Structure of NAD(P)H-dependent oxidoreductase:
Amino acid sequence: MSTFLESQNWRYATKRFDAAKKISDADLNTLKEAVRLSASSYGLQPYKVVIVENPELREQLKGAAWGQTQITDASHLFIFASDVTLDAASVDKYITNISETRGVPVDALGGFSDMMKNVVGNLSSDAKNTWTAKQTYIALGNLLGAAAELKIDATPMEGFNAAQFNEILGFDKLGLSASVIATVGYRHNEDDTQHYKKVRKSQEELFITL
C-alpha cells in the first residue's frame, strides 16, 4: 500500500509532455488491461475506449480541445466514449458473455437480465447518458492509478468540445459520445508543474466518520 500511495504522490496533471518519449507496447497493454478490469454498474461496461495514436487525427482533435498541446505531445490519447444506444440487446450480449465465461446457462441468469433491462428501459435518454458517462470516470480512475504505478504520466481532461470530437471521430455513427479524455506519456523536463507541492484537503477536512 505504501508503494501505491507513493505513486499517487508522484503523479500530477502533466501540462507538458515530452513528445519524443513513447510508451512501450508492454506498458500500453498493462494500461489497457487496467481499464478493461475496471468496475462498472452491473459489470455492463457501457462504453468504448478509443486510443488515438495517429498524429494527423490528434492535430484535428487538438483544435477541438482549445489547442492544448498535451493532445499531440503525449505518447497516447485515451478517449472514453459512453454508449448512447444502451438497450435490451446490450444486456443480452452481456448475459451471453457471463454465460460463456462462467459456464452458467443463460436461463439461470434470467432474473439478473430482467432486472438490468428494467433499469435501462426505465431511464430517460438524458438519464441514461448521464449514467453511462459516469461509468467512464470509474475506468479513468483505474487508468490514472495504473499509470502512476508504472511511472507513466496521465492527465485527465474535460477541456474539449465533445460534439466536435464526436464529429471528427465518427462517434455519432457508432452510437458513442466522448465523455472524458486522458493524455498519457512522459513529463517534459521543463514542465514546471511537476515541482509544485500537491494540494489536497486534510483527512480531517475531507472525511466524516459516522
